[in-house]
Prior knowledge:
The protein is of the alpha+beta class. Helix content is 12%, strand content 28%.
Amino acid sequence: xxxxxxxxxxxxxxxxxxxxxxxxxxxxxxxxxxxxxxxxxxxxxxxxxxxxxxxxxxxxxxxxxxxxxxxxxxxxxxxxxxxxxxxxxxxxxxxxxxxxxxxxxxxxxxxxxxxxxxxxxxxxxxxxxxxxxxxxxxxxxxxxxxxxxxxxxxxxxxxxxxxxxxxxxxxxxxxxxxxxxxxxxxxxxxxxxxxxxxxxxxxxxxxxxxxxxxxxxxxxxxxxxxx
Length: 227
């Protein structure tokens, strides 16, 4: 690729990310991550400076962690799909919070696989073109002809943080993390390796695992009653 073409691609990617980060342009999400590329003919976008490439995929489910993928990409020879770009700080948090990740489902008939007990679904896709070796999206394997695979992860330990599950069972609809904390994952049932007690399972909705750095005099969960 010529230097001028690469520069132009970086400028376009930067402008698109600028639009996506304008208040009100997108719904608020946990991490500063955005999908680059426009379906159905998706060419891989180049993440601008300050952003880390997490994965190149031809489709992905919507979730509160990474936002809306938008229209899916056509499958054609050498297609790479859209690029998930996360702010460097967000990428570091994601790789820290999620541990022991794997794709659940066997191609070509993936049958919309589900995560096993003790794992949380972080994302879902039928076709991942590539992912860095240190990304939680790595090792997707063969793409699905039918259904999709689930990216299933456990949560890592939190030695320097304080965490709580937010949501009152059995109807866990109010699950917004308090100021000063970040949402790690949502679940309707207890998870293995959770840094704090989950409490009663949800019949409707999910609880949010919210974590914040331990600081002297800072109690982000003060006044909240854990379910």
